[in-house]
């Protein structure tokens, strides 16, 4: 039996599940685009790597400046974009599956807002300490509040989104209040972080995001079958033998962990987790997660590449551009839903 997304082949009692030709072609095309975007991202911008620089690097004849530019400046930046985009894409796909809501994402339920509030509070009280620590504490606090408020028996489709709206409102108010109290230099520092940025990334940031992926993605793939059953409805999943409450708790924690890793690496970048799963188009759950990772990487990397090509007057953090793209996509999505009704 074949579908648009998955091909199932049966040999006697053995069932083989494989991506369909259409799915495989889409994944291959996305990987090619990621590779091209990676190369262009390295080459573009004020301090881009030229083709001659690539040749001298691979020959081992590069100058100390060329070595630093490639290994310490540009390569960590593109790897952080790929890793953080993948983490956000998978996290968004899981949240949309759990909430059965196309708008479900870490942004919507308040994790990014909690990270932003934690960052501004941390800078206000401990101005000489890394902002990322405050962002982590803020995001973890939001997750803790969310888990306590939801309790042991819950339906994510309603409660999680409503709770996220309340958390977002409180966090935004906190950020606005603190920004009126801090010094101008601190406010400028906060703006760069709160917007989400790939500037000045290093190998420590790369290790954080890829360790996050290595830890959380395999665990989520083990839950893929249960997540697939959840798409058929809460009651249907129970009838089919899935331990729904346990699966939802586990998936929520793992998806939140991926979002936290991305926030630690690039700050609260908006809308990548929302848009990437829509670009991936859901099908078989494992394939959906992997496709969401690919499209999340592609979206963040292409956005960063675009920011590198903008004139100095229009240069912006990558999070500002993804917010613009995500906002336009959200308007289009809502308009299409209204039209269909």
TrEMBL record:
SUPFAM superfamilies with a match to the protein in the record: ABC transporter involved in vitamin B12 uptake, BtuC
Pfam families linked: FecCD
Record has Transmembrane as a keyword: yes
One GO BP annotation of this record: siderophore-iron import into cell
Keywords, ordered alphabetically: Cell membrane, Membrane, Transmembrane, Transmembrane helix, Transport
GO cellular component term of the entry, any: plasma membrane
Parts forming coiled coils: none
Subcellular location(s) per record: Cell membrane
Transmembrane stretches, start-end: 26-45, 78-96, 108-126, 133-154, 160-182, 203-224, 251-276, 316-335
Topology versus the membrane: Multi-pass membrane protein
Gene Ontology molecular function: transmembrane transporter activity
CDD domains to which the protein is assigned, alphabetical: TM_ABC_iron-siderophores_like
PANTHER family: FERRIC ENTEROBACTIN TRANSPORT SYSTEM PERMEASE PROTEIN, FERRIC ENTEROBACTIN TRANSPORT SYSTEM PERMEASE PROTEIN FEPG
Family: Belongs to the binding-protein-dependent transport system permease family. FecCD subfamily.
Protein name from the UniProt record: Iron-siderophore ABC transporter, membrane permease component
Native organism: Aliivibrio salmonicida (strain LFI1238) (Vibrio salmonicida (strain LFI1238))
Gene name in the database record: fecD
